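Good morning N.,

You mentioned wanting to compare the apo and holo forms, so I went ahead and generated the holo version with magnesium ion. This is what I fed in:
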Amino acid sequence: ASSISIRSLHKAFSSKMTALDGVDLDVQPGEFFTLLGPSGCGKTTLLRIIAGLEQPDRGSISIGGRLLDGVPPHQRSVNTVFQSYALFPNRNVRDNIGFGLQMQRVKRQIIQQRVQAMAEITKVDDLLDRNPEQLSGGQKQRVALARALINEPDVLLLDEPLSALDAGLRGQLQVELQRLQRRLGMTFVFVTHDQQEAMVMSHRMAVLHEGQVQQVGTPQVIYEQPKTLFVARFMGHQNIFAIQQRNEDEIVADFGVLKGRFAAGSHILLREEALSLKAGVVEGHNRLTARVEECLYRGGSTEYRVLCGNARLTVRSHNLGQALFASGQDVTIDVAPEAVAILP
Ligand code: ADP
Ligand code: MG
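and this is what came out, ligand included:
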């Protein structure tokens, strides 16, 4: 496994279209590192530059301490798995997986053994004689993965490899891919626009926005302590409010007043899963009175949209047998300290 360091990377496709705008990143050896961001933020461009398929305008990439300026793709120990499988249609699964080793003129017998071993790891060993058109989407992606792993690259790049799959299969492959990475200990750079997927899979992740890295950290840090409004919204937080006034021991925002000594910042975030509701008006420390507007029952939890002061808040409540609240009902929101994060 190798480290990757990316320094001051710039790439513009035209004077108006800057795809990467000064990207600095360090990926550790053996890390499952994810690039997360909306469509068009520069994820694919960054992967293509790491692979050597695209030249940066400025900046540099090193893998395992080796500077890759001008090094062509096939001389980098990097393989890529794309969203659109890109298998050779006229070769069977066995030959697709073994292709990289054939190119390196590895002995036939050794290729056979390694294809068999890799096919077992990726669970396609019963499909070796089929052609790609006889495979499902999930099977094709397993074959693409086996083909990319067979020559043991230092780094595997994965560009939204699961996004063409339906939800159930996708969840299953997320688990398998994560297990595989932990087992092989190889450095993975994984791209997705899905924040849930990024959190499930990654050791660390970088959130990209318009060609810039907004924040790098573990899933927990990115979710619990977002540094920017963009990151907070992209991670799915709904209760984000401008801080109108901050006194020594309280904060004022559209929803009302919260007591406590809070860090300085522009916005306050209330985590919907850490708020709790009580029926009626209940006085107490950091309790806000509100009225339920909408209830979205989701089985294990219910999402309540409530009107609180001049703000609309979302509260996610676990359904553990207690009575549900109804729209129109007066409630009290209990704001626990751990529900609050301040955006700097
Ligand atoms: P992502 O993978 O995050 O969706 P991309 O890296 O594909 O983003 O694209 C980043 C930006 O660069 C987009 O606005 C896209 O339109 C533009 N772009 C990407 N590739 C090219 C290209 N070959 N020519 C012109 N513009 C491009
Ligand atoms: Mg892309």
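The pocket of adenosine-5'-diphosphate (ligand 1) is lined by residues 13, 17, 19, 37, 39-45 (CB under 6 Å).

Happy to go through it together on a call whenever suits you.

Best,
F.
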